[in-house]
Specification:
Blueprint lengths: L1 H29 L16 H13 L2 H5 L12 E4 L2 E4 L16 H10 L14 H4 L4 H11 L13 E2 L7 H10 L13 H13 L3 H4 L17 E3 L2 E3 L14 H10 L12 H9 L3 H15 L23 H13 L1 H4 L25 H9 L21 H15 L8 H7 L4
Helix pairs in contact: 1-7, 2-6, 4-6, 8-12, 10-11, 10-12, 13-16, 16-17
């Protein structure tokens, strides 16, 4: 009995010591010193450096996340939905009170490399510092020059809405231990200069893998699964490697056009979060975008050749089709989709891609297709682009489920999506 008592006390002592050590480790990981308020005067930067920083900001899609109101560029306030809660982007204009006007170049560099704000707070990894940490110092300096020469806008930060316990910032420190690699970018001398530039921009700046790589339950990229497909704002981000679901092989030229304009021959137009990416890349240096396409195409070219259904009007189910849902799906297609999509894409806005070529039908996840049908596709404010109306107020859940199931079978010729009804419910507009 005495031995058992001593064993229990020993275990409690070990548990207590572990808790104390964990708390100390958390505090050590969380705490970073605040850096002095020491901004830079706009006139301190060379015009060429500012122009270079502007191009880098476009390649990094900074405006896509840090602009909620186009009249207030880079003033933050955009809600970024994550599995752990909602993070609001911050003001990165040189406003001294609410932006980064009091940040020194050192503070800016620390944020980019380590995800630490000037006042020492750890930043949520919705800000992709795990990618930016690979940037060359002169590129970070050019970005700093660009942002410090933007118009200063007074825009206080909005409070994040994180689910318990993810609002406890020491957890970010543990996350950084697992996923933050601050080692410098390593070029591959065996590849061409264009490929190397594309690799650097893709990973260190454009952070394509942040959306196109699956993540673990902790929100970190799954090891060994680069470009295997992921998600962004509840849209499925397709694989960019041998697992690409694209029914039509990508050429480098078509990929370049798509990244700059959101449309390419034989491929669906950009929708959802990809639209903001296209807007930014469309304003970036074309040679840099071509470099991204060169690098990504090297992965897409690994996709096996597949037999593609020839584009044509989608057929009606056979008269003896046992699945009533297929008949309802075809009826819904004829009512809502056939007028544009059976015609095939043309210069007219009343024509659209025939759906055997639409990648959303081939995705292993139906969410992108469901969002497109519900919400439609509209170009960002003030930007040219293709338009598709949304059908959220026209189609009920039963019709949408039937339409998606019909398109999956008769458009893509693929196996049914699992848990389609549940996906339809989850993508319903609140």
């Amino acid at each position: 009995m005495k031995e058992a008592g001593r064993t229990r006390r020993y275990r409690w002592w070990l548990a207590g010591a572990a808790l104390v050590l964990s708390a100390l480790a958390a505090w050590t990981i969380m705490w970073r010193p605040a850096l002095p308020e020491r901004g830079a005067a706009p006139g301190a930067f060379d015009a060429a450096q500012v122009r270079r920083g502007a191009n880098l900001a476009r390649l990094g899609m900074c405006a896509a996340c840090h602009t909620a109101d186009v009249a207030k560029p880079f003033a933050g306030g955009l809600a970024l939905a994550t599995p752990f809660g909602t993070v609001y982007s911050t003001n990165i204009t040189p406003d001294a009170r609410t932006g980064i006007g009091a940040w020194s170049a050192e503070a800016f560099t620390r944020a980019m490399r380590q995800g630490v704000a000037r006042d020492g707070r750890l930043l949520y990894p919705a800000f992709p510092y795990t990618h930016y940490t690979k940037l060359a110092q002169d590129d970070i300096d050019a970005l700093y020059a660009f942002f410090m020469t933007r118009p200063a806008i007074d825009a206080p930060a909005r409070e994040n809405r994180m689910r318990f316990p993810f609002g406890f910032r020491p957890l970010i420190g543990f996350w950084n231990l697992l996923y933050l690699d601050e080692s410098p970018w390593q070029a591959d001398a065996r590849q061409s200069a264009q490929w190397q530039r594309g690799a650097y921009v893709t990973h260190a700046l454009a952070h394509c893998a942040a959306c196109h790589t699956p993540r673990s339950v902790l929100g970190g990229p799954k090891s060994g699964r680069q470009f295997d497909g992921g998600e962004a704002e509840d849209w499925y981000a397709p694989a960019l490697n041998a697992g690409s679901p694209s029914p039509l092989p990508w050429t480098r030229e078509h990929l370049t056009a798509y990244l700059r304009t959101g449309i390419a021959p034989g491929h669906a137009v950009a929708g959802g979060p990809m639209q903001d990416v296209v807007v930014q890349l469309g304003q970036a240096d074309p040679q840099d975008v071509q470099s991204i396409a060169t690098y990504i195409h090297g992965y897409l070219a690994q996709a096996p050749a597949r037999a593609v259904l020839q584009p044509a009007p989608l057929p009606a189910p056979a008269a003896n089709e046992p699945d009533a849902r297929m008949r309802l799906g075809h009826e819904t297609y004829v009512m809502a989709c056939a007028r544009c999509h059976d015609a095939g894409r043309a210069s007219s806005s009343g024509a659209a891609l025939q759906l055997q070529q639409a990648v959303a039908l081939y995705d292993p996840d139906p969410r992108s297709l469901l969002h497109i049908v519900r919400e439609g596709i509209a170009p960002p404010d003030g930007e040219p682009g293709r338009f598709m109306p949304g059908f959220a107020t026209i189609l009920n859940d039963e019709q949408l489920t039937a339409l998606a199931a019909y398109l999956r079978r008769y458009g893509a010729g693929s196996e049914p999506w699992e848990d389609l009804e549940d996906s339809v419910k989850k993508t319903r507009t609140p």
